Amino acid sequence: MSHNAFGHLFRMTTWGESHGPAIGCTVDGCPPGLPLTAEFIQSFLDKRRPGQSRHTTQRREPDEARILSGVFENDSGEQVTTGTTISIVIDNVDQRSKDYGDIKDKYRPGHADYTYIAKYGIRDYRGGGRSSARETAVRVAAGAVARKVIPDVTIRGALVQLGPNKVDRTRWDWNEVDNNPFFCPDPVAAKEWEKYLDGVRKSGSSAGAVIEIVAEGAPAGWGAPIYGKLDQDIASALMSINAVKGVEIGDGFAAASLSGEDNADELRIGNDGQPRFLSNHAGGILGGISTGQPIVARFAVKPTSSILTPRQTIDRFGTETEILTKGRHDPCVGIRAVPVGEAMMALVLADHYLRHRAQVGQ
Fold first, then answer.
1. Burial of residue 215 (number of CB atoms within 10 Å: 0-12, 13-18, 19+)
2. Is this prediction's pTM over 0.90?
3. CB atoms within 10 A of CB 253
């Protein structure tokens, strides 16, 4: 199985399975001399960690990151990157593989069970193995390293839709994101979502979500035309997250209903003599290159495929049957996808920063 790496100059490679002994990643291309500790990485992993509320899977994983290589103490005693490969490992400590024994021969609808068999002829049925969202923990770890490469860029994510329920953007408050279990910027919507998701969870069903990622502080000029577009790589990064079925930049699909006049991001000269945009329908990217405005991307996550409602399927012997998936699953996998989306944005921007620095010789 190839294609376990992402990025060009700043490159992440991940390994491990959901019910294996550990998962991990290597990060290549990180410049030397950047302060980096396991505690810093942990601060981002704790946002994604399961079992923190009744609205996520109750699998109890501490997700403690250990840095195995690529850092060393400088003359001041501070742990910094050495410029060599950084290796990070996270132990799996709360697997319940027996939960999957009854369905090891069945193909779960919505999962990658059938496609993995079709491609490889073998699959790890314990929680999906390599296809499990458990792999995204190490993406968050790598994303923490990426943030050290671009310290002037602020990357934030929020859940803007849970099932059919959307936030009211007039109530948007970034400070609210850390005050509720949904990463929701609308305190009123967050309260309503608790009742909604409680009902979904008790019925044994699941819900989808939409996540918005905003990166501020990236200057104009990152990205390249045609096949190295910044928005192209952001779309690829977000689409690679488990259960994601759609990505949009800026106004995205809504731009199709606008007129050319409404969609145009007009420019004036600001008080500082620099170009100033009057709107940001483009999401901070034009021609594949950053404009200096906030970079805005959204991605849609499908409802969790593991549900208690019986569904029709077949088994690997070709027999038609029914299946329900027991175990500990997120009623909405989109909630914990917020820090994963932030991490993928950080990985892309760190990569494009290094590409741009190589071009201009800074």
1. buried
2. yes
3. 9
